[in-house]
Automatic annotation (TrEMBL):
Keywords: Membrane, Transmembrane, Transmembrane helix. Residues 75-197 form the CD-NTase-associated protein domain. InterPro entries: Cap15 (IPR041208), Cap15-like_TM (IPR056338). This is Uncharacterized protein. The lineage of its organism: Bacteria, Bacillati, Bacillota, Clostridia, Halanaerobiales. The chain crosses the membrane at residues 12-29, 41-62. It comes from the Bacteria. Residues 13-68 form the Cap1-like TM helices domain.
């Protein structure tokens, strides 16, 4: 997985808030541990819980789970899931339009994401060179990313190549339409695609 950005989302402020919460609760948790738990167990110890430890646990919980619950209130989409995809290669070496089908898998945390595409002929994996999401009011969300594509070794007419993809998700995040453009040096082609969510 790699880092990505969400336009107009104050990620630094969220981290600051998590740090402030950790600093506030660390001494309270230390006192709870010392005056209640350890005392009831008749254990004498000077063990304390550091703000750094609390921050680590808080960040982990927010990064893995909490952001999914609050995301819809801060325009932070949860794209996790599997999608059926139908694509059309509009320009390619054959000179003809080519229909293709596949499956897109998106794995996303608050701070990292990865998008993979599997078709009958090849597979692609998103790169961290360019990856971001922006909210388009009344329309939904736009996901853009740079990818690399590795064809099946048996498809000798296909070559490894890189490209760029832009997907426009509906507000409910169940469907998306988009376009892809392959690196002209590796494989001068482009096309369109339609995604429909299978599951979360």
């Amino acid at each position: 997985m790699h880092q990505y950005s969400v336009k107009n989302h104050p990620r630094e402020k969220v981290i600051f808030c998590l740090a402030a919460i950790s600093i506030f609760f660390a001494p309270l948790l230390s006192n709870l541990l010392k005056n209640n738990i350890l005392k009831n167990l008749n254990i004498t110890s000077s063990i304390s819980i550091s703000a750094f430890s609390v921050f680590g646990l808080t960040y982990f919980a927010f990064n893995k789970y909490i952001w999914r619950w609050v995301g819809k209130y801060i325009n932070y989409p949860n794209l996790n899931g599997q999608y059926n995809v139908k694509g059309t290669s509009l320009k390619n070496p054959t000179g003809k339009e080519i229909e293709w089908k596949g499956t897109v898998n998106i794995k996303q945390n608050w701070d990292k994401i990865i998008i993979t595409l599997q078709t009958n002929n090849s597979s692609s994996k998103s790169l961290s060179v360019i990856s971001g999401i922006r909210h388009v009011p009344t329309d939904g969300y736009q996901l853009s990313y740079h990818y690399e594509n590795s064809p099946d070794v048996s498809k000798k007419e296909l070559k490894n190549h890189e490209g760029f993809c832009m997907l426009d998700f509906e507000e409910n995040l169940n469907k998306a339409t988009g376009h892809y453009f392959n690196n002209i040096k590796d494989r001068a082609s482009y096309g369109k695609m339609v995604l429909e969510r299978i599951d979360n």
